[in-house]
Specification:
heterodimer; A: 142 residues; alpha/beta; Rossmann fold; 5 helices; B: 546 residues; mainly alpha; TIM Barrel; 2 domains; 4-stranded parallel β-sheet; 21 helices; 10 strands; disordered N terminus
Chain lengths: 142, 546
């Protein structure tokens, strides 16, 4: 019942039309409102969303590989260097898929992460645009 | 939300974000008459119109801004800056990563994200660090909030601040200030990686209440604070209902412990926090109704008659979630509107979120502006000269009654679920917040809720360049060095012995505040205290995943 907010609960779609998204928080800041809303929107259109919460870079990379993620979402609540290290680790561990990010990402960091191929959705981003990006980014999957 | 076009007639019903009806016109028949408090003057029960008869004429509200980042010296500098601008109390944010989780800076979870250290508050791992923050600040002069936002962190944060005062030769009984120990932040809005179970959190809060009554009598021991519930999604009546459900848990538990008269507990809990957002009239109504509900709850359920306990004092923080990332300077206007609502609602204390809230922690410029917004309202408008200036407004009185009715209903729902803590443990309250979060986003998407720069008047170019405040970048290194120095130079035997006493006390379930103070005085570190909490209390089972 209560798990439907986040974990694999009643709102997750096992019929996964679009694929699997692994979502993690980069920092030890546990504000969950943004993650929760985005996860719900992605599930509503048929993504399977796996929420990792606050875990370290290696754990995120391992989960992305083990879960065979089609897309990795990072909720950034801290500094960009931490996000950059997580992205680096994901690549090192062999995750080749797309990455997108949301959270309190100031404009300079949006530009910086853009150079790494990470699309950013700072506060105020439309849910439609986030969902559309997820569909576009995973559309190349087998 | 707003009526934008078309024929308008008085039958057409719009709704607030909480779902309360908004009619086009209100009249005398909308004003409630029975026992609603509408006709009682401010300073008279049930205090709907104000807790004090002369309002701001007798005491202006406290300008009280959330502040803190970087090294302790950076945080101290910012606090002194704010005080110089006219802030009349100060708040010390601690670094989230270490403070919220009770980790020392060399904990593996911290090391793996070391760049984040100090991003949202100063690292304070011992009383020595806290002393660096308050250097040059007269602790006896100012009302202080020395941190301890998260429940498990509060005993340490308070002990560190009081220890600094003691070392300066100040009698802690003379200090004024407030704890936080915020259930809404800790167990609802911002869930930490590790946290003691909510029931143990309540026990610790009651320890602080008992301790303050005896040794720091002017202190507000804990703050029942709806802000983080509201900013996580709870609407106005849900915030009211759950705040009082939280207060009931604290009142009942302190009564059960039997150390303090109920009136004294009620007095100490009667400084509460609410969020004010952009739902202008509803938020004003919320503050008025809060005072009435507190009065009614204490008189009817607990039989309290002492008027000092029955008068609710309110601190408001304006909604961070109302501040937009797009065109951030527009947030100065939003901050002003929310501050105005707070003043019209009769708050005793106010913090206005920074215009750069959606981008970063406040820059010096944003902090400056938040203080100036308050000062302009205070000095230029004449508003503070009249208590409850909107009292008697057909609309306000009508919506106040609607809100109270719904809030009492929600409080009843929580009690049916087994009480406030049960709704945290089960995730019931998180579910309510989550549903609203989603509805709000859907309303923004559909355009039924309009936000300038976000879904209306978008992309017309922002002439201002705000890029987010970046703070300090040497925090981890310097905090590590201070910790190493602490371990090397303290009297290790004294620290270990005090920690053993603290552990024993935690195991027996006695009040932990005295041994906490002794451990902090003996230079125990935050992480060492955290190890004891983790061993004795274990982890709260988080009812949601994110």
């Amino acid at each position: 019942m209560s798990n439907s907010i986040g974990g694999v609960g009643s709102t997750s779609n096992s019929g996964a039309m679009f694929g699997r998204v692994v979502v993690a928080k980069t920092s030890l800041d546990g504000h969950w409102r943004g993650v929760s809303v985005v996860a719900r929107a992605l599930r509503d259109v048929g993504f399977e969303v796996i929420l990792l919460g606050m875990v370290k870079d290696r754990e995120i990379a391992r989960a992305a590989i083990d879960e065979d993620a089609d897309l990795v979402g990072l909720n950034i609540g801290g500094r960009m260097q931490v996000a950059e290290r997580i992205i680096e680790t994901l690549r090192e561990e062999g995750y080749r898929g797309p990455i997108f990010a949301g959270g309190t990402i100031p404009p300079y960091a949006v530009r910086k992460l853009g150079l790494l191929g990470v699309e950013c959705f700072p506060p105020g981003s439309s849910l439609d645009n986030i969902v559309a990006a997820a569909i576009r980014l995973t559309s190349g999957k087998a | 939300m707003a009526v934008t076009s078309g024929e308008l007639n008085s039958e057409q019903i719009e709704r607030t974000i909480s779902g309360l009806p908004i009619k086009a016109v209100y009249g005398p028949s909308d004003v409630p008459v029975d026992s609603s408090g509408v006709t009682a003057l401010p300073g008279h029960p049930p205090y709907l119109r104000g807790a004090f008869p002369e309002g701001y004429r007798s005491k202006p509200w406290r300008i009280f801004q959330l502040s803190g980042f970087g090294n302790p010296e950076d945080e101290g500098e910012r606090i002194r800056y704010l005080l110089e601008k006219g802030e009349t109390g100060f708040i010390m944010e601690h670094d989230r990563m270490t403070a919220d989780h009770l980790y020392d800076v060399d904990h593996p979870e911290v090391i793996s994200r070391w760049e984040d250290v100090g991003l949202s508050g100063a690292v304070q791992l011992s009383a020595r660090d806290t002393a660096l923050v308050v250097e040059g600040i007269d602790q006896q002069k100012y009302f202080a909030h020395p941190g301890g936002a998260v429940v498990q962190h509060a005993p340490f944060a308070l002990a560190a601040y009081w220890t600094v005062a003691k070392r300066r030769g100040v009698d802690i009984a003379s200090l004024t200030g407030t704890g936080q120990s915020d259930f809404f932040l800790t167990y609802l809005g911002c869930i930490t990686k590790q946290q003691i179970p909510a029931r143990d959190g309540l026990k610790i809060n009651c320890d602080i209440i008992d301790f303050c009554a005896k040794y720091v009598p002017k202190w507000v021991p804990v703050s029942i604070a709806g802000y983080n519930g509201a900013d996580t999604g709870l609407n106005a009546f849900q915030e009211l209902g759950s705040v009082f459900a939280c207060a009931i848990e604290h009142l009942d538990e302190t009564v059960r412990r039997g150390n303090l008269p109920i009136t004294e507990v009620a007095r100490s809990l009667g400084g509460m926090n609410f969020r004010v957002g952009m739902e202008f009239m509803e938020d004003i109504a919320k503050l008025r109704v809060a005072r009435k509900m507190w009065h009614d709850l204490l008189t009817s359920r607990y039989g309290i008659t002492d008027s000092r306990a029955l008068k609710l004092r309110i601190h408001v923080v304006t909604a961070g979630s109302s501040m937009t990332y797009q065109e951030p300077m527009n947030n100065i206007v939003r901050g002003t509107i929310m501050a105005l609502a707070s003043v019209l609602g009769g708050v005793q204390s106010l913090g206005v979120s920074g215009y750069d809230e959606a981008l970063s922690i406040p820059s010096e410029e944003a902090h400056h502006m938040s203080v100036r917004i308050q000062q302009i309202l205070m000095h230029e408008t004449n508003l503070p000269k009249v208590v409850d200036p909107l009292g008697g407004s057909y609309y306000l009185e009508s919506i106040s009654q609607d809100l109270e009715e719904k809030a009492l209903g929600f409080l009843g729902d929580i009690e049916k679920e087994g009480g406030f803590i049960a709704t945290l443990d089960s995730g019931w309250l998180h579910g309510k917040a989550s549903d609203n979060q989603y509805q709000i986003e859907q309303a923004i998407l559909s355009g039924s809720r309009e936000v300038v720069g976000v879904n209306v008047h978008v992309g017309e170019g922002d002439p201002f360049n705000v890029d987010g405040f970046q703070g300090a970048d040497d925090v981890f290194e310097r905090a590590t060095k201070r910790l190493t120095d602490l371990r090397r130079t303290r009297d290790s035997n004294a620290a270990m012995s005090a920690l053993r006493d603290l552990r024993d006390t935690c195991i027996t379930g006695k009040n932990l505040m005295s041994p906490m103070l002794e451990a902090v005085e003996a230079e125990a570190s935050l992480g060492e205290i955290g190890d004891i909490f983790r061993e004795v209390y274990g982890d709260w089972k988080v009812p949601i995943s994110f």
